[in-house]
Design brief:
Length: 430
């Protein structure tokens, strides 16, 4: 029966396609093509989800309707499709049931494996994981050899018994893509990092035939480079004479942050919005030696980055005291708290653990950071409050030398007893 449009006139497909100079092999394809070209006959919306599908081909429309989530038969068709796929897979690669003997305990067990996997040796050879571990660690001679064929040339080679089947001989591994000699293979590896300019091969990065600093060019062989993404490396300078100068600019920038500004690795990572481990990797490749833990702690104490309020290294009473200005200050012993109240009565402007002074410790033979207990700015005076039992005289003398060289007035309060500390305290002024 001839296909009809919404009008009652029948359609002659031959005349329809001859006018448009289109060759159609059979009537069925002509019918589908006619439906696709004439949009009046097309279904405009999906009958399940209501999506607009008027611009799709007939096959695409059928796929949409069959796979539509709102379709009530969607689950049934999906299960049917998965079963048919499994059947076709099993026709190509059928399952085989085998009875094998365990390599470790010689116990017979049954295994089900795909036929192609069995031919390649990819199947379970032991009855359990315990036997597999014992066989691989104890009963297998690791020096034993097996004969395999090269993946590229097919040559028989002796390899270790634990090596995989995907292996190449020495000639194919050293000479990639069929290079005749080792020199040709080296040239081939170089060509991957070069480009052809002005009738010669030059490096993609520095723009020279032979790299003056090949260790720098190797850093830029990755597809997504760290130096371009995070450190603002000028891409336009790649392949020019200014390539090394741009790289040195970034290295000097990082050295300035790390050594001159004394930033930590975490601070540098936050500055450039990158990961801490990436910064550590970049420093290692550039040749910047990271600080030790003691050096990092020294700089943290020097720059006041460490939170000394929560770090109580001795078992004395500590807490917070509100001074005569209403400001909260930290104390590390009852002696300090008692002295704060004396200064509050006199309404003295004092600061707590505000200074960071470098001094040389003669006992440990290294530079350390001293944090004075109290500093009175109006009198330019440093006050150290110590107990008779905790005082280290040699260490205190080292600190006082550093204080005096910087021009500070120094007062040391030494006392004993838990109550009325400052009545019996010994006051030493330097």
């Amino acid at each position: 029966m001839p296909f009809r449009l919404r009008s009652s006139a029948p359609i002659n497909y031959k005349l329809f396609f001859l006018k448009r100079k289109i060759s159609v092999k059979n009537l069925f394809s002509a019918h589908n093509l006619f439906i696709y070209t004439n949009k009046k006959v097309m279904v405009e919306n999906c009958k399940y989800c209501g999506k607009d599908i008027k611009d799709l081909r007939p096959t695409q429309k059928g796929q949409h309707v069959a796979n539509c989530v709102m379709n009530p038969n969607f689950k049934f068709t999906a299960e049917k499709r998965s079963k048919s796929r499994l059947n076709t897979q099993r026709l190509k690669n059928p399952l085989i049931k085998l009875k094998l003997n365990c390599l470790n305990c010689n116990k017979e067990f049954e295994v089900e494996v795909i036929e192609s996997y069995y031919k390649r040796g990819r199947y379970i050879k032991c009855c359990c994981k315990k036997c597999a571990h014992k066989y691989s660690s104890n009963f297998l001679d690791k020096n034993k050899k097996k004969v395999k064929r090269c993946k590229d040339c097919g040559k028989e080679i002796q390899v270790n018994i634990l090596s995989s089947d995907n292996i190449r001989c020495d000639n194919c591994r050293k000479n990639p893509r069929g290079c005749d000699s080792a020199d040709e293979s080296l040239k081939f590896n170089k060509r991957r990092c070069q480009e052809f300019k002005n009738n010669k091969y030059v490096c993609k990065h520095c723009g020279e035939e032979e790299c003056k600093r090949p260790e720098v060019c190797k850093l830029f062989r990755q597809k997504h480079n760290v130096y371009d993404v995070y450190f603002g490396f000028d891409i336009n300078k790649k392949g020019t004479n200014e390539f090394y100068n741009e790289f040195d600019r970034i290295v000097n920038m990082l050295k300035e942050d790390y050594f001159d500004k004394e930033l930590s690795l975490t601070e540098i990572a936050n500055k450039y919005k990158m990961n801490y481990q990436t910064v550590h990797m970049v420093f290692k490749k550039i040749g910047i030696i990271a600080r030790t833990i003691s050096e990092a702690g020294y700089l943290a104490a020097k720059n006041g980055k460490g939170n000394s309020d929560n770090a109580v290294s001795y078992p004395y009473k500590s807490g917070y005291h509100i001074n005569w200005k209403g400001k909260e200050v930290h104390y590390r012993s009852n002696y300090e708290k008692e002295y704060y109240s004396i200064l509050d009565e006199k309404k003295v402007n004092y600061e707590i653990e505000n200074l960071r002074i470098v001094y040389y410790d003669t006992q440990k033979k290294k530079f350390r950071i001293a944090i004075p207990d109290i500093y009175i700015k109006d009198m330019n005076e440093i006050i150290e409050i110590k107990s008779k039992w905790t005082l280290d005289e040699i260490n205190m003398n080292d600190k006082i030398k550093a204080y005096k060289t910087l021009g500070y007035n120094v007062k040391v309060m030494i006392g004993e007893g838990n109550k009325n500390f400052f009545k019996n305290a010994k006051e030493i002024i330097y």
